[in-house]
Amino acid sequence: MVEELPPQCSAKGCRAPAAWQLLWNNPKLHTPEYRKTWLACPDHRVSLGAFLEARSFLREVTPFVSSEDARIS
């Protein structure tokens, strides 16, 4: 049996629980309404957001409540 893990931060090597969702898209690849999601812990919200913002990919940052309420990609 495979144990399902709780949603975790998307930062490389981080396994902390997700607290934020960063919604983004690459305008060269995606339609304007399309969103991909990275999850972030409190420690990595700013660095992951800065990475996406530097590339003009970041669209929105919202609290992560539960998997049922998120669009995880």
From TrEMBL:
Superkingdom per UniProt: Bacteria
This protein's name: Acetone carboxylase
